[in-house]
Amino acid sequence: MKTKLLLNFFILIAIKFSAQLNCYQQSNGLYQYYAKIENIPNINSNFDKTDFINYVTTYGNLNSGNLATLNSDILFVSKSFPTSQTAFLQNVVNIDSNSDIYPIISNANNSISTIECRSNPILLKVQNFQLNNRLSVTKNPVDETSKLIIDSKIKNFKLTVTNSAGQIVYSNEFKNNENISLNTFIKETGLYILTIIDLQNKNNYIVKVIK
Known about the structure:
The chain is α+β, with helices and mostly antiparallel strands. It has 5 helices and 12 strands. The protein has a 5-stranded mixed β-sheet with strand order 5-12-11-8-9. A 4-stranded antiparallel β-sheet has the order 2-3-1-4. Strands 6-7-10 form a 3-stranded antiparallel β-sheet, with no helix packed on it. A hairpin with a 4-residue loop joins strand 8 and strand 9. The protein starts with a helix and ends with a strand.
């Protein structure tokens, strides 16, 4: 009986977590995403579906079934910000699909570092940031021992934590560099975006965690 109850609990958690991550079908019948390409610097302005399928085939380490789904269900791929001068935005693409391909793309062997719904972007609201090069998390998914480790060069900073719905769940300024326990303010299951703003030079740094 206990085993069955425990199994049901984990099933409910998995459903809740999946619902928070996946995109919803838009009024035009499509699922629409932003995706960040990792292994090709400054992708070509003509980057399209064929290029994307070839890319995930080469770098994504996906099985043949997932590749077949992407090939059949993705309708359009294009460079999102062809005139952008920032390295991050130069490698963001639009994806329009007939089905929710989030679970496939998000497990593409880190060849896609970011994928989010175009109807409610989180990372792309930040105009000037660097990804993960000044932050690390000691344990991800988050548990009671997880800490956010910040580069020692960042002395005074503001930490903002945003959930998958784009809501700010925590925000605070810190006057001295310190390791921050994540479990004190990340309590619910889900995906979270942690943004550090260096108060001295105004640079932003971002890391994603789950619980």
